[in-house]
TrEMBL record:
<dbReference type="GO" id="GO:0003677">
    <property type="term" value="F:DNA binding"/>
</dbReference>
<keyword id="KW-0238">DNA-binding</keyword>
<keyword id="KW-0804">Transcription</keyword>
<comment type="similarity">
    <text>Belongs to the sigma-70 factor family. ECF subfamily.</text>
</comment>
<dbReference type="GO" id="GO:0006352">
    <property type="term" value="P:DNA-templated transcription initiation"/>
</dbReference>
<dbReference type="InterPro" id="IPR036388">
    <property type="entry name" value="WH-like_DNA-bd_sf"/>
</dbReference>
<dbReference type="InterPro" id="IPR013324">
    <property type="entry name" value="RNA_pol_sigma_r3/r4-like"/>
</dbReference>
<dbReference type="Pfam" id="PF04542">
    <property type="entry name" value="Sigma70_r2"/>
</dbReference>
<keyword id="KW-0805">Transcription regulation</keyword>
<protein>
    <submittedName>
        <fullName>Sigma-70 family RNA polymerase sigma factor</fullName>
    </submittedName>
</protein>
<dbReference type="InterPro" id="IPR039425">
    <property type="entry name" value="RNA_pol_sigma-70-like"/>
</dbReference>
<dbReference type="InterPro" id="IPR013325">
    <property type="entry name" value="RNA_pol_sigma_r2"/>
</dbReference>
<keyword id="KW-0731">Sigma factor</keyword>
<dbReference type="InterPro" id="IPR014284">
    <property type="entry name" value="RNA_pol_sigma-70_dom"/>
</dbReference>
<dbReference type="GO" id="GO:0016987">
    <property type="term" value="F:sigma factor activity"/>
</dbReference>
<feature type="domain" description="RNA polymerase sigma-70 region 2">
    <location>
        <begin position="15"/>
        <end position="79"/>
    </location>
</feature>
<dbReference type="InterPro" id="IPR007627">
    <property type="entry name" value="RNA_pol_sigma70_r2"/>
</dbReference>
Length: 186
């Protein structure tokens, strides 16, 4: 980033190529809306470009990049809805089992794994935004709690709590949905 700030366009290309896939997945997983994810993704890179000449190396570039992404995400969520509310669609999905299982139950391994993945995806979608973000950054991106706390601008203990609560909530949610939607599968 420092090289790009000094005018090295190829340095930006290397940064972009290294981080583009993971950053885009971050937004898709957080938002569940590919068009909105694309908009936030583009805005993140736009802000990186605008900040090139003033960038100061106070943290890893990855941490700085995800801090920008996090702030855009938080700004969007605050503008659209309070963090503690579910969307109408999520509320409707809470008691429903995935359509694939409802339409064609067969006790084979692939179907069972698809059902479990669907349960987990549904439950991740129901997490409060701050827990979902911490969980996904930790599990999918492999970031440590310390890096996540830098990205989110919260204490290390708050980040650890968010990850711990997310795990607990997911375990409880999946167990409840598993019992509620698959009595004969066990």
């Amino acid at each position: 980033m420092l090289s790009y700030g000094r005018g090295d366009i190829e340095a930006f290309e290397r940064l972009y190529l290294k981080h583009k896939g993971a950053l885009y997945r971050y937004f898709v997983r957080q938002m569940g809306d590919k068009q909105l994810a694309e908009d936030l993704y583009q805005e993140t890179w736009s802000r990186v470009i605008k900040a090139a000449s003033t960038y100061q190396h106070s943290a890893k570039f990855t941490t700085w990049l995800y801090r920008i992404a996090h702030n855009l995400l938080i700004d969007h969520v605050r503008a659209v809805k309070p963090l503690s509310e579910f969307t109408e669609e999520q509320q409707q999905d809470m008691g429903q089992e995935p359509q694939a299982l409802a339409d064609s139950y067969r006790p084979d391994v692939e179907l069972m794994q698809a059902y479990k993945a669907s349960l987990l995806k549904t439950c991740i979608g129901l997490l409060p935004q701050v827990q979902k973000e911490a969980f996904l950054l930790n599990m999918e991106m492999g970031f440590t709690a310390a890096v996540i706390s830098d990205i989110a601008g919260v204490t290390l203990e708050a980040t650890k709590s968010r990850i711990r609560y997310a795990h607990r909530s997911l375990k409880d949610c999946v167990a409840a949905k598993w019992q509620g939607g698959s009595h004969e599968i066990q």
